[in-house]
């Protein structure tokens, strides 16, 4: 059935091997036989030892994790354009791995009976499939191999799953090689390296690598004045180049770099300097692959040119996070680092979005993170909550300016979505015209909330008043903060509303000191740690800190620490709150990592006795705190 | 347009009838086991009496799988033509193509749909267009159960005063929210595909709202 959709499928397939080796007509014929499968997050595509399906799969959208063994360790992650489930094509036995949708995923299922003739007839297709299957990688051309180890076990088991995954992971090297000729001058080279944002340039002759020049070479040889900037590449380059084949694991690459004490390896087609250079591997690439160093991650984020480039780095951030938690690094430090990394991701998304705009911003603006990201408490990826604030403009420019920033915000929201932040279900996002305003408009809006407070206004204030600046102008944000604090001071009734809102979060325990569980919906019988434990603390902290007119501390534990300083007589309670909050946050984060979700709902049955006691001990603190604020902000005490 | 609302009222009434008659055993079927046909039509305009269907695109949906071999796209030969709407659907009157007559196309369509549940975006429009065409050709009206993604989508939105709801959500809104590529938008088949993916995501959300018990066809019709 040839139709619009089969064309659409063909259009997609033709960009990815092995389909790249087929001619257009064959791809079209194939596309007419394909099924499109929608998989919810976490649903199984096939299980270990399951009988093989009649199709293999290519990921159209989303990501699929291949897992194996009793610990269900992730062996491979397939994303857009990657193929998996090839076993039935090659071996007549059950699946050796489980395939599970890591996020919401759309797959194309390609019937093997229809595809097999192409694999047999077309050598390139056949080779690709054998290699993919053997290497257990989906695309040996883009990612180099998953290591020889797998190759030796063509039909056998995957190796001992205990070994840390990264040891045998392929190194992701840069395929965009920046080259120059032997006669290029140092100055030209430097300009090219700046333009391409690389730290090394390859000197080639007839496409073969003859030398390499790095930042360090330029510094040592040119900046020192040893050579003039007109010096030709051949004079200052390091030669011969140390070359390696594409089949290089992270561990091998690390050893190679250490052994020769160099910062860049050249990857060539056959591994010798006599074949074409296909990529450059820097120390930086290796570090990123290891994913255990925040500063390299930041560097990698800043190099991203597309939203899509940031997504894999976010996976590394999650690995880093689980490593920190495993090593019991203090949660305060952990959340600082992770928040910093998240902020850099957001900043980069904004940078990329700004490049998509035809003109630079007409006036200064500030991108505000709200809610948990604003409080620097967002360790796991949750929904987006953001707003945009821009400088006041004269009336005649108002419409145009708003239009510009709305367009920018739409790009940013989409970019954040692409790197893994879901859209806010209540549309509290800067692309919503209600949340993209000039300074004066914001002022009159918050003034409205503060002086004319209803239930919705309290909720809005709760979300908005925890803002922090993600990107842009500090002055604007400061001015708004000052305005808010002043306005609240003049309208103390607002505190009463805030407190009643803060006391509304449901209590964590019931009459018999048992946990209160959710009554209905998808999370029935789960404990809602966010609403019942974290929110009462963060809501109370907000009221108290506002009453002391302290600005620019939005992190909840930090607010409590500050409060302990400001109110010595309540010092102990506040410190307990600060501690409880950190403990709860850590708890939630661990749960979230365990289940690949936001960690908000906890199955009590899965907790150990000790964990339950630990949780409960924080509840007493919550109760005491709520008592304090309900007395202090009692209407008779304020008016 | 007046016509449109009258029609939609009677439709909603129909839904209630189905719901009241909860004895209908098919409503107990699991959504996973139900064949849905997600369709879209391109027409010469919005007038049920004068305008004509130029193209029907439809995909079948069973247990989360859209099978391309089991899909349907047909361009229909029509005498009547409105060049204004061509800007939207891009179908030219004398496009060089073997276009079957309306009767032939409808017969093929009925065979494809069979007794599946029909899903569309603003379903009432497409169903009325098709029913009018069936009537003209002396064929019986559609008796299939129908679902509307524009309507179901609203049920997935959170209940919050902070969220401003729109009266009408266009297919473009859904595509944006669900991150579905708008390639081939405004072709019948392209829109049917977008609607199908949106429908799957809506079902997933409604399933989540319902909790852990089995999700049946009745759950989709209760709204």
Automatic annotation (TrEMBL), chain A:
| Keywords (A to Z) from UniProt | CBS domain
SMART domains xref list: CBS
Residue ranges annotated for the CBS domain, each copy included: 173-229, 237-296
Pfam families in UniProt: CBS, cNMP_binding, DUF294, DUF294_C
MF GO annotations: [protein-PII] uridylyltransferase activity
Q: In what residue span(s) does the Cyclic nucleotide-binding domain sit?
A: 54-136
User: Could you name the domain of life of the organism this protein comes from?
Assistant: Bacteria
- Establish whether keyword Calcium is in the entry: no
Cross-referenced InterPro entries, in alphabetical order?
Answer: CBS_dom, CBS_dom_sf, cNMP-bd_dom, cNMP-bd_dom_sf, Diverse_CBS-Domain, DUF294_put_nucleoTrafse_sb-bd, GlnD_Uridyltrans_N, RmlC-like_jellyroll
PANTHER family given in the database record: CBS DOMAIN-CONTAINING PROTEIN, CBS DOMAIN-CONTAINING PROTEIN CBSX3, MITOCHONDRIAL
This chain belongs to which protein, by name? Nucleotidyltransferase
> Where does this protein come from, organism-wise?
Flavobacterium gilvum
Automatic annotation (TrEMBL), chain B:
Quaternary structure, per UniProt, is:
DNA polymerase III contains a core (composed of alpha, epsilon and theta chains) that associates with a tau subunit. This core dimerizes to form the POLIII' complex. PolIII' associates with the gamma complex (composed of gamma, delta, delta', psi and chi chains) and with the beta chain to form the complete DNA polymerase III complex.
Q: What is this protein called?
A: DNA polymerase III subunit epsilon
| Role according to the record | DNA polymerase III is a complex, multichain enzyme responsible for most of the replicative synthesis in bacteria. The epsilon subunit contain the editing function and is a proofreading 3'-5' exonuclease.
User: Could you tell me which InterPro entries the record lists for this protein?
Assistant: DnaQ (IPR006054), Ribonucl_H (IPR013520), RNaseH-like_sf (IPR012337), RNaseH_sf (IPR036397)
**Domain Exonuclease positions:** 35-208
The Gene Ontology CC terms held by the record are: cytosol
Biological process (GO) annotations? DNA replication proofreading
GO MF terms, alphabetically ordered: 3'-5' exonuclease activity; DNA binding; DNA-directed DNA polymerase activity
TM ranges: none
Instruction: Output the SMART domains linked to this UniProt entry.
Output: EXOIII
């Amino acid at each position: 059935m040839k139709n619009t959709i089969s064309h659409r499928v063909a259009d997609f397939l033709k960009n990815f091997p092995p389909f790249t080796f087929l001619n257009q007509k064959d791809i079209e014929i194939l596309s007419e036989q394909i099924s499109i499968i929608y998989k919810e997050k976490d649903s199984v595509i096939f299980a270990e030892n399951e009988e093989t399906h009649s199709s293999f799969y290519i990921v159209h959208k989303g990501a699929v994790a291949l897992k194996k063994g009793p610990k269900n360790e992730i062996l491979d992650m397939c994303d857009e354009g990657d193929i998996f489930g090839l076993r039935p094509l090659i071996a007549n036995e059950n699946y050796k791995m489980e395939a599970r949708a890591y996020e919401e995923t759309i797959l194309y299922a390609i019937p093997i009976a229809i595809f097999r003739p192409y694999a047999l007839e077309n050598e390139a297709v056949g080779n690709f499939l054998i290699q993919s299957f053997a290497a257990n990688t989906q695309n040996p051309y883009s990612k180099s191999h998953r290591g020889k180890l797998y190759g030796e076990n063509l039909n056998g088991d995957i190796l001992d799953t205990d070994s840390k995954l990264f040891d045998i992971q392929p190194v992701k090297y840069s395929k965009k090689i920046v080259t120059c000729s032997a006669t290029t001058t140092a100055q030209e080279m430097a300009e090219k390296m700046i333009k391409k944002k690389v730290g090394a340039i390859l000197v080639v002759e007839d496409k073969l690598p003859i030398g390499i020049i790095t930042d360090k070479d330029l510094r040592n040889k040119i900046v020192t004045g040893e050579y003039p900037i007109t010096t030709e590449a051949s004079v200052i380059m390091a030669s011969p180049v140390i070359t390696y084949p594409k089949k290089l694991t992270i561990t091998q690459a690390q050893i190679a770099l250490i052994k020769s004490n160099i910062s860049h390896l050249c990857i060539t087609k056959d591994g010798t300097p006599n074949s074409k250079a296909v990529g450059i591997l820097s120390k930086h690439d290796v570090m990123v692959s290891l994913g255990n160093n925040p500063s390299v991650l930041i560097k990698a984020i800043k190099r991203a040119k597309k939203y899509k480039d940031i997504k894999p780095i976010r996976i590394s951030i999650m690995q880093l996070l689980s490593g920190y938690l495993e090593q019991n690094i203090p949660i305060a430090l952990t959340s600082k680092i992770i928040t910093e990394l998240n902020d850099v991701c957001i900043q980069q998304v904004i940078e990329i979005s700004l490049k998509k705009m035809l003109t630079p911003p007409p006036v200064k603006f500030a991108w505000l993170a709200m809610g948990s990201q604003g409080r620097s408490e967002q360790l796991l990826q949750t929904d987006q909550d953001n707003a945009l604030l821009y400088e006041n403009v004269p009336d005649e420019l108002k419409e145009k300016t708003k239009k510009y920033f709305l367009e920018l915000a739409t790009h940013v929201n989409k970019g954040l979505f692409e790197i893994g932040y879901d859209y806010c279900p209540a549309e509290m996002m800067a692309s919503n015209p209600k949340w993209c305003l000039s300074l004066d408009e914001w002022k009159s809006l918050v003034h409205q909330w503060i002086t004319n407070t209803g239930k919705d206004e309290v909720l809005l204030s709760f979300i908005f008043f925890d803002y922090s600046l993600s990107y842009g102008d500090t002055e604007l944000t400061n001015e708004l903060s000052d305005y808010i604090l002043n306005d609240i001071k003049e309208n103390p009734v607002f505190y009463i509303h805030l407190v009643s809102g803060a006391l509304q979060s449901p209590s964590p325990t019931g009459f018999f000191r048992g946990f209160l569980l959710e009554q209905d919906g998808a999370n029935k019988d789960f404990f809602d740690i966010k609403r019942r434990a974290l929110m009462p603390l963060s809501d109370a902290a907000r009221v108290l800190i506002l009453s002391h007119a302290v600005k620019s501390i939005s992190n909840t534990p930090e607010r409590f620490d500050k409060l302990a300083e400001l109110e010595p007589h309540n010092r102990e309670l506040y410190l307990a709150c600060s501690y409880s909050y950190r403990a709860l946050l850590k708890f939630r984060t661990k749960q979230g990592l365990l289940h690949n979700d936001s960690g908000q709902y906890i199955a009590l049955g899965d907790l150990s006795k000790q964990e339950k006691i630990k949780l409960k001990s924080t509840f007493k603190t919550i109760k005491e705190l709520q008592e304090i604020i309900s007395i202090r902000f009692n209407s008779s005490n304020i008016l | 347009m007046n016509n449109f609302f009258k029609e939609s009222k009677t439709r909603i009434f129909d839904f209630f009838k189905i719901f009241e008659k909860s004895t209908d055993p098919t409503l107990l079927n699991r959504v996973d086991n139900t064949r849905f046909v997600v369709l879209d039509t391109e027409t010469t305009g919005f007038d049920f009496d004068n305008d004509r269907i130029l193209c029907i695109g439809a995909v079948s949906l069973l247990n989360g799988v859209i099978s391309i071999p089991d899909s349907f796209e047909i361009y229909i030969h029509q005498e009547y033509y409105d060049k204004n709407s061509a800007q939207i659907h891009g179908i030219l009157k004398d496009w060089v193509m073997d276009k079957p007559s309306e009767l032939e196309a409808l017969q093929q369509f009925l065979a494809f749909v069979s007794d599946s549940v029909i899903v569309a975006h603003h379903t009432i429009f497409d169903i009325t267009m098709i029913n009018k065409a069936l009537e003209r050709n002396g064929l019986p009206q559609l008796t299939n159960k129908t679902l509307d993604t524009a309507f179901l989508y609203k049920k997935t939105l959170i209940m919050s005063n902070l969220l401003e709801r729109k009266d009408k959500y266009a297919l473009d809104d859904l595509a944006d929210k669900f991150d579905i590529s708008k390639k081939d938008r405004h072709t019948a088949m392209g829109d049917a595909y977008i609607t199908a993916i949106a429908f799957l995501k809506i079902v997933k959300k409604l399933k989540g709202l319902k909790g852990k018990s089995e999700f049946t066809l009745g759950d989709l019709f209760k709204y």
